[in-house]
Amino acid sequence: MMLIDVSVESLQSIERLETSWKDIEETLKAYIGKELISGEKTDLDLDTDLIGLVDSTGVMELTVWIESTFGFSVEIDDITPENFGTIRRLADWIRRNSTQPAE
Question: CA distances (Å), 56 to each of 9, 17, 20, 59, 60, in order?
Answer without folding.
Answer: 36, 28, 25, 5, 6
